Amino acid sequence: MKNCLVLIFLWSCGAAGCYSPRYVYSTPAQNVPVLAKKGDAEIAAYYSTNLASRSDDASKNLSVKNNGYDIHAAYAYSRHGALQFSFAGRSETNDGNYLSRRDSVTIKYRRFMMEAGIGYYQPLHDQQHFNFQFFAGMGTGHYRINEKRPNTSMSGETNFYHVKALKVYLQPALLVNPYKTFNSGFSSRFSIVKLYDDKSDYFPQDLDNYKLDSLTRFPVIFWEPAFINSLGFKNIPALRLEFQAVFTFLLSRNFVDARPFNFSAGIYLDPHVLFKPPLKSK
To answer: What does the DSSP assignment read for the chain?
Structure first.
C-alpha cells in the first residue's frame, strides 16, 4: 500500500510538473488616508514584506522572500472629495520545487505598479471618531519573472516571463479614531487586473505547466481586505506610524498564482499640519 501511494505521488508530480508557483500578482499596500476636512493631506512611505525568509520545508532551506516599498499621497480637495496616488516596487525570490529536477530553479521577480484614484470621505460622528471613505481608481505597471535553472554549465539555464498589467480598483474603508493618537481601520478593496503584452522564452509545455499560458485572455478579480493601525504622537501631530496587513483572495474562475499576504510598516506625514504656521500669542 505504501509503495502504491509513493507511485501515485510520483505520477501526480510528473503530470503536474511539481511546479513551484510563478507569482504573477502581488498586492501593494493600500492607500487608506486619514481625512476629516478640506485641506487634509498625507505623504507616506512603507517597507513591505511577506514576513517569510524560507518555505515550510526547513530541511531544504528554500528561500521565499518578498521585499519592497510603497509610497502614498492623498489630498482632500473639498469637504467630501479627495485624491490619492500610490507607487509600489517589489523585489522577490522563491526557490523551486526540489522534488522535481525539472523545476529546481531560483525564481526572481521585479514588480512596479502606479495607481491614482478619486474618492469620497464622510465623518460619521460629530467628533470624527468614525470615518467612511470610498475610492475608485486605476493602475498600470509591469511584472517580471526571471529564473535560473542549474545545469552542467557554470552559467545555468535562464528563462523569463514579462507581462504588463492594467488595474481598476474599488476601495471602501471604515476608519475608527477613538483617540487623537490612535487610528484603526478596515479596507475592502476589489481589484480587477488585466494582464497584457506578455513576453517569454519558456517552452509552450512549460507555460502550460506553470499556469502562464492563458493569463492575458481574461481579466482576473481579487478581493484584498486590509487591516490598518496607526499610532501618533502628542508632541508631533504631523507624524504617525502605520502598520498594515493585506490578504489576497482570487475571486475569478480564471487561475493566476498570487502572493497571499503582504505586511507593511512605515511613517506618514500631514504636510498641512507640518507647515501650519504657529499660533501667535496675544
So the answer is: -HHHHHHHHHHHHHHHTTPPP---B-PPPP------STT-EEEEEEEEE-S-SB-S-TTTT-BEEEEEEEEEEEEE-SSSEEEEEEEEEEEEEEE--TTSGGG--EEEEEEEEEEEEEEEEEE-STTS-EEEEEEEEEEEEEEEEEEEE--SSSS-EEEEEEEEEEEEEEEEEEEEEEETTEEEEEEEEEEEEEEEEEEE-S-HHHHHHTT-TTTTTS-EEEEEEEEEEEEE-SS-TTEEEEEEEEE-EE-SSS---B--EEEEEEEEE-HHHHTPPPPPP-
pLDDT tens by residue, 246-262: 999 999 988 899 999 99
CA distances to 115, 143, 162, 199, 216 from 213, in Å:
27, 15, 12, 11, 8
For the entire predicted model, the pTM comes to: 0.84
CA pair distance 180, 129, nearest whole angstrom: 9
130-149 vs 182-200, strand pairing mode? unpaired
CA angle 185–190–191, rounded 5-degree value: 125
Whether the CB-CB separation of 191 and 222 falls below 8 Å is answered with yes
Is pLDDT of 12 > 50?
A: no
Do 188 and 132 meet the contact criterion of CB atoms below 8 Å apart? no
Q: 501667535: which residue's cell? A: 280
What average pLDDT is seen over the chain? 83
Tell me phi and psi for residue 107, to 5 degrees: -110, 125
